[in-house]
Specification:
This protein is α/β, with parallel strands linked by helices and about 160 residues long. About 45% of the residues lie in helices and about 15% in strands. A five-stranded mixed sheet has the order 2-1-5-3-4, covered by helices on one side. The N and C termini lie far apart (about 70 Å).
């Protein structure tokens, strides 16, 4: 039986089922490969983020009158994997809100990682070329307050 003979053969139910099964198998294989690539990409992204977070040196300053907040926040940041290198009081103890200050990155990429961990929305760039720090966190009076929940229970 040659290839020409197969083409001349009328398409029956068996041939259509075979084509359908082949297409279905191809779709399943492509889906499995795509899913595997997606999982691999997501895992690599998570590892890269964790590696980058470990390289961010953070200073935590207490900008409130409540003692011990800087140590508590430093412990929280260390649990996330940040390198907290300095804990102190801020010049002023009446900061109304917590602020994340980016010291080394124009795109505020380092500060965004810290702000995400703290669920803080206040990020300001204040570059210091001579500083060994990447990020400074100044704790404000809003730290430790229960956060408001939205309509669906999300922030």
């Amino acid at each position: 039986m040659s290839l020409v003979d197969l083409k001349k053969r009328p398409a029956g139910k068996g041939r259509k089922r075979l084509v359908f099964a082949a297409v279905l198998l191809l779709v399943i294989v492509c889906g499995a490969v795509g899913f595997s690539v997606c999982l691999r990409w997501k895992e690599n992204s998570r590892i890269e983020k964790k590696r980058r977070i470990a390289q961010i040196r953070v200073q935590v300053l207490n900008g409130t009158k409540e003692s011990g907040l800087a140590q508590k926040m430093a412990d929280d940041l260390r649990r996330y994997g940040f390198d907290v290198v300095d804990i102190a009081n801020a010049e002023n103890d009446s900061f109304p809100e917590t602020v994340v200050v980016d010291r080394a990155d124009n795109s505020t990429g380092n500060a965004v990682y810290v702000a995400e961990a703290l669920k803080c929305i206040n990020i300001i760039p204040q570059l210091e070329s001579r500083s060994y720090l990447e990020v400074t966190v100044i704790i404000g009076k809003d730290y430790n307050r229960p956060q408001k929940k939205g309509f669906l229970g999300r922030f």
